[in-house]
Specification:
The chain is mainly α and 171 residues long. The protein has one domain. It has eight helices and no strands. One of its GO terms (biological process) is membrane assembly.
Length: 171
């Protein structure tokens, strides 16, 4: 929606951001921080280390964008990934409620897979491509953080996709 209402954003993900975008990314940092602390306090490390690692990467990358007031557009693109989180969380709720063998679970599995491919895999691929194509316009330190972030997030999401496929479709 932001990209439709603010077409300049698609041309400049570094310096351009619409009103409210900086606040959205800042609030997202707060959410990831709160969720990180909650997991540390309420879950065993062996159950949550991957998410803790994921949240650490997001907090660093989004934190840089918020502090520098730059790369907010890039962070907005990254937030598209979170659209899939709705269906990942619903999947967890359905699993906890022991509703695995229901139409609702099956439907959610299909929507989860579709949104996973579109909003996680495709978005991360696009972001990696953008970063590579714009490497001349991004300062070396920021480029390094972005490259490391993408190098961490992409394999993590591919592994999670494999686990989802194995669990929900290839039983």
């Amino acid at each position: 929606c932001r990209f439709y209402l603010h077409p300049d954003l698609s041309k400049d993900l570094v310096g351009t951001h619409p009103p409210g975008a900086h606040s959205l990314v800042a609030v997202s940092v707060g959410y990831f921080l709160e969720d990180f602390v909650d997991m540390l306090c309420n879950q065993k490390l062996h159950q949550s280390w991957e998410l803790l690692f994921h949240h650490s990467v997001v907090i660093v990358c989004f934190g840089i964008a918020v502090l520098l007031h730059q790369y907010i557009g890039f962070a907005l693109v990254a937030l598209l990934v979170e659209i899939n989180s709705i269906f990942l969380h619903l999947r967890q709720i359905l699993l906890m409620a022991n509703l695995v063998h229901t139409t609702c679970y099956r439907l959610n599995s299909i929507v989860n897979l579709g949104t996973y491919v579109v909003f996680r895999i495709a978005t991360l691929a696009w972001m990696t491509r953008w970063l590579f194509l714009n490497r001349e316009n991004v300062p070396p330190a920021t480029y390094a953080v972005g490259t490391v972030g993408m190098a961490i997030m992409t394999p993590m999401n591919i592994i999670l996709l494999y686990r989802l496929l194995r669990s929900d479709f290839f039983k």
